[in-house]
């Protein structure tokens, strides 16, 4: 019994760790392949993005290990501080000199030589807050004023701060994750569905209020009508997948990354994988995400308490939802949205937050094993 308890306390959930580390390793290789030409042109060295991604991966592993050994129940006491920190960071993005603008949007907070994307922290903070709040109010979740209104008000504040960056896509993702958590947590379906009555027209108004969003939607319906404008990214992404075949063109031999496909190492790295590693490589990536999804949901279902179950489900949903949106965009199944592919795309904030999320899931898993060992 002592041996089982020691293993549970010190070990790592291999079924979760394996697909994550495999994806991170593939990501480092593919970031180099996708970015080498761009890095050479802009920075004079083809290793620029490779070195930074390797550093992000190392920091991500440290974050994973730290969160793995940080008792997940302690996040109850951090729910409000994390939420406040996310709100402050989102607001600070709009302060001149602090916010960093790229691609026409101010979504990053510049701290010296470091740039940080607060919307990633906001997503993690919202998940922890909802898990804590719903666990605390589980006897009153059916009440509209207690189980629904406070959570939606917090969600609205975060959404407003993200929308003015502007980042409409992240707002949609934030609301989707929150709606799933509220539904699973026990909030009345009637309340959730009633709230959609004002939300849907507001979302439509926000989307139609900017010409670039309209162009993105129209290009999604038929990208070939906008080959040099809004449909350019989708067309070249589809060309990358089409030329990959089953086995791919070969690692490093892709053509679309050579200044044809925009952001090949971030938003469209899956397209580069499809071209260079083919359908076989795509299947491997999808299989790893399926393993992650299955293990994450199993951890959430077997958690020792409601807080751990809701947080585990929220963290897993957030990662997989981001996967579905990114892949959907690259395959032309969803309108274009600047969103990274978890563990694969270049990007420090995304990788750190997602690795920390995996560490939290592992701590929930280890705590559940410890409970079994005591029994």
User: Can you write the helix and strand succession as a string?
Assistant: HHHHEEEHHHHHHHHH
> Cα distance, first to last residue?
9 Å
Strand content: under 5%
User: Radius of gyration over alpha carbons?
Assistant: 21 Å
> Biggest sheet, in brief?
3 strands, antiparallel
- Which strand order does the major sheet show? 1-2-3
Can you tell me the overall shape?
globular
User: Helix proportion of residues, in percent?
Assistant: over 70%
How many E strands? 3
Q: Stretches where pLDDT falls below 50 for ≥5 residues?
A: 1-9
Mean pLDDT across every amino acid position:
86
Structural category = mainly alpha
Tally of DSSP helical segments = 13
Number of structural domains: 1
């Amino acid at each position: 019994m002592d041996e089982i308890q020691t293993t549970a306390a010190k070990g790592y959930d291999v079924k979760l760790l394996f697909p994550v580390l495999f994806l991170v390793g593939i990501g480092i290789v593919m970031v180099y392949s996708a970015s080498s030409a761009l890095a050479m042109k802009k920075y004079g060295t083809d290793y620029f993005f490779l070195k930074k991604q390797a550093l992000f991966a190392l920091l991500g592993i440290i974050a994973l290990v730290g969160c793995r050994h940080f008792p997940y129940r302690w996040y109850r006491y951090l729910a409000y501080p994390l939420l406040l920190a996310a709100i402050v960071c989102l607001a600070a993005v709009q302060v001149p000199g602090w916010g960093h603008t790229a691609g026409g949007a101010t979504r990053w907070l510049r701290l010296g030589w470091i740039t940080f994307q607060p919307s990633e922290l906001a997503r993690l903070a919202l998940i922890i807050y909802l898990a804590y709040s719903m666990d605390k109010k589980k006897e009153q979740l059916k009440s509209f004023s207690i189980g629904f209104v406070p959570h939606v008000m917090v969600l609205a504040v975060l959404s407003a701060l993200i929308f003015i960056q502007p980042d409409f896509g992240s707002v949609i993702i934030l609301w989707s994750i929150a709606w799933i958590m509220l539904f699973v947590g026990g909030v009345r379906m009637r309340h959730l569905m009633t709230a959609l009555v004002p939300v849907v027209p507001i979302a439509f108004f926000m989307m139609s209020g900017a010409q670039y969003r309209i162009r993105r939607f129209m290009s999604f319906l038929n990208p070939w009508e906008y080959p040099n404008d809004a449909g350019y990214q989708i067309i070249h992404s589809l060309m990358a997948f089409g030329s990959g075949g089953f086995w791919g063109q070969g690692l490093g031999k892709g053509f679309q990354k050579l200044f044809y496909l925009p952001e090949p190492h971030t938003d469209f790295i899956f397209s580069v994988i499809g071209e260079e590693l083919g359908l076989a490589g795509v299947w491997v990536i999808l299989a790893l995400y399926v393993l992650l999804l299955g293990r994450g949901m199993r951890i959430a279902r077997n958690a020792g308490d409601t807080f751990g179950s809701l947080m585990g489900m929220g963290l897993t949903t957030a990662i997989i939802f981001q996967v579905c949106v990114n892949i959907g965009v690259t395959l032309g199944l969803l309108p274009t949205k600047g969103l990274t592919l978890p563990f694969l795309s270049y990007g420090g904030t995304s990788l750190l937050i997602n690795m920390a999320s995996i560490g939290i899931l592992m701590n929930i898993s280890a705590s559940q094993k410890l409970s079994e060992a005591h029994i």
